[in-house]
Specification:
The complex is a heterodimer of chains A (265) and B (246). Chain A has ten helices and six strands; from the N terminus they run αββββββααααααααα. By secondary structure, chain A is an alpha+beta fold. Chain A folds into two domains: 179 residues, Transmembrane di-heme cytochromes, Chain C (Fumarate Reductase Cytochrome B subunit), CATH 1.20.950; 58 residues, no CATH class. In chain A, the strands form two sheets. A four-stranded antiparallel sheet of chain A has the order 1-2-3-4. Chain A has a two-stranded antiparallel ribbon with strand order 5-6. In chain A, a hairpin with a 5-residue loop joins β5 and β6. Chain A is globular. Chain B is of the alpha+beta class and 246 residues long. The longest helix of chain B is centred in the N-terminal third of the chain and has 21 residues. Classes of the chains: A alpha+beta (265), B alpha+beta (246). Chains A and B meet through α2, α7 and α9 of A and α1, α2, α3 and β4 of B.
Chain lengths: 265, 246
């Protein structure tokens, strides 16, 4: 007589998801921090093909005043705000104020070094791109994307989305499956934000300009690609902040342990 | 309670530990090898003669900013500059059949290429300008390369402290159609601050490869043993990648 062996229930998070999640968390952290140091070399953003000091910048982080009275500031378009201590002017390794766009605690390395930042950024770029490609292919093959991230027609209904918004505001989280907002966030990062970061990063490379001029044109020129790269970075940082808040609000230990050990479906 | 001081102290120790890892020579060697994969990666998908984007006259930067050294202290160069480089010559030597000394007039008499291209500084800014001069490939063909030649080194008149500026490229970029020895910029003679009398244009790489004040073109089989051994001033001094296609 055949006996039905009790099969263990599938984990909430597959091994491929868990591996990529933690590896990618490290990679994105390194990419953002080394990227901010690269930005520090020229803390101005432009639209179009060219852009340098004499050209109008839509975003600028800078410092004014003498060494004893440095004041940092951020300008976006015609809007300026003082950001002393954080952006433009912050305490250096010796504690003294120095003129630098992003402060040392936010950058790799912790004091100005463009070559070192580029070495980290350009090496980890491979890990980001290869990791994302392997994970997306794996998740297509094992059905993760279709099963867990696919947004059904019913979920697209404004009533349903509004209901999910209200649930989030009341801190009521459905444990059985991802909500529509959660799916939108993950799909947005996986299929829009991360690919856009890779594409806009490549578009800044003069070699890629020759290999794939269409890639530069796609963004409207190299300096536009640099601006998109920066905005995408801000989007990623925003996602991570939101993601961490949701984890904290919905049972952090259980959530983190599930992403380490797999958890119950 | 850990307290605010504890957080600051703990954060400081964490940052210091991270920074030690970030600067570790062994880690950096490994990172250099991985970052170095961008060269074969780009070469794999890029046609050997694939051109960097060229622009129209209306797309040029109104102001092409200068960078690096904008003048030269060397007495020999200054004497040439005072004469408008009338008696200046470009030395071509190393692993060649015939060493050459080419005057500015000789360079201007060769077939010229004019291109409006984008100059991308490693810092992040870009400027679009027009460049004119003979292709480097023509000059190398005149000298006749020996089969052992693998690198073209550009020795420059400017120096920072004791270190002279120099740069190097491989033969793929040396014979690329857009690789020129530019004596003209934006329709005029190349200004001093942009590298007179000639500067290299190697359009598929970043700004620090575009050597200014070029005095001598040397063909070599290796970059080892030359200055810091990494093939360029910025490569030696600050550790920038030799391949600057990204």
């Amino acid at each position: 007589m055949m006996t039905q062996l009790p099969s263990s229930p599938p984990p909430r998070h597959r091994l491929s998801t868990r591996l990529w999640h933690w590896a990618n968390a490290v990679v994105v952290l390194v990419m953002v921090m080394s990227g901010l140091m690269i930005f520090n070399a020229h803390p101005r953003l432009y639209w179009g093909a060219y852009g340098a000091n004499a050209d109008p910048a839509w975003l600028e982080i800078g410092a004014t005043g003498d060494a004893q009275h440095l004041a940092g500031g951020l300008r976006i378009g015609s809007m300026s705000i003082g950001t002393t201590g954080l952006l433009g002017a912050s305490a250096g390794e010796d504690g003294a104020m120095q003129a630098i766009a992003f402060p040392g605690w936010a950058t790799i390395p912790g004091s100005y070094d463009l070559a070192l930042a580029r070495r980290w950024h350009l090496a980890f770029a491979w890990a980001l791109a290869v990791g994302l490609a392997v994970y997306v292919v794996r998740s297509l093959v094992n059905g993760h994307i279709w099963r867990d991230l696919h947004i059904s027609r019913a979920e697209w209904a404004p009533r349903h989305i509004w209901g999910d918004v209200r649930d989030h505001l009341r801190l009521r989280f459905d444990d059985a499956s991802y909500g529509v907002l959660q799916k939108l966030a993950y799909v947005g990062v996986l299929f829009v934000l991360l690919p856009a970061m890779i594409a806009s990063g490549l578009a800044m490379a003069p070699g890629m300009d020759a290999a794939a001029p269409w890639l530069v044109d796609l963004f409207g020129g190299r300096q536009s690609a640099r601006s998109v790269h920066f905005i995408g970075m801000a989007g990623l940082v925003g996602f991570v902040g939101l993601h961490l808040s949701m984890v904290l609000l919905s049972g952090p230990l259980r959530r983190v342990w599930a992403m380490i050990a797999g958890g119950r479906a | 309670m850990i307290g605010r001081r504890g957080v600051i102290l703990g954060g400081g120790l964490l940052l210091a530990g991270c920074d030690r890892l970030v600067r570790d020579p062994g880690v950096n060697d490994a990172l250099d090898r991985v970052a170095g994969l961008h060269q074969p990666g780009q070469r794999l998908i890029m046609g050997r003669d694939a051109l960097a984007q060229e622009f129209g006259a209306r797309q040029m930067s109104p102001d092409f900013r200068t960078n690096g050294n904008t003048d030269v202290e060397d007495a020999g160069w200054r004497a040439h500059a005072a004469e408008g480089f009338a008696r200046w010559t470009l030395r071509v030597d190393g692993l060649v059949h015939r060493s050459l000394d080419l005057s500015l007039a000789a360079l201007k008499a060769m077939t010229q290429r004019t291109q409006i291209t984008r100059h991308d500084c490693v810092e992040g800014w870009s400027a679009i300008g027009q460049w004119q001069g003979p292709q480097l490939g023509q000059v190398l063909a005149m000298a006749g390369m020996l089969p052992t030649a693998r690198y073209v080194v550009f020795h420059c008149a400017d120096r920072t402290g004791d270190a002279p500026y120099y740069e190097s490229i491989d033969l793929i970029d040396a014979f690329h159609p857009q690789t020129i020895l530019a004596w003209g910029m934006n329709g005029a003679v190349l200004p001093i601050e942009h590298g007179a009398p000639i500067r290299l244009r190697v359009e598929r790489q970043l700004g620090y490869k575009q050597a200014k004040y070029v005095m001598r073109v040397e063909l070599r089989d290796s970059l080892a043993g030359l200055y810091g051994g990494k093939g360029g001033y910025w490569e030696d001094v600050a550790g920038y990648q030799w391949y600057a296609g990204i």
